Amino acid sequence: MNRESQGISSVVSTIILIAVAIVMAVAIAMYVFDLSGAAATIYGLRVLINGPNYSNDSVVFTIINSGGVVAEIPYLKINDYVLNANNNCMF
Known about the structure:
This protein is α+β, with helices and mostly antiparallel strands.
């Protein structure tokens, strides 16, 4: 029994190499152009909340919309206290 191993054909190996090259090109393009993080920042709603900061018997929260769409906050509720445009939530 003198069987020699043929391996894979040149057509199959070419298809595998092309598929690997395409995957690598897409991964490099996403890294170079930062497509992963930019999509959420440019096209979506992204709200960052900094705080609480305490000073002079006050608590300060900073809310930043770093996304690409307009956001409206009709009210804030912290525990049972509601803050809207008509009050200052001072108790």
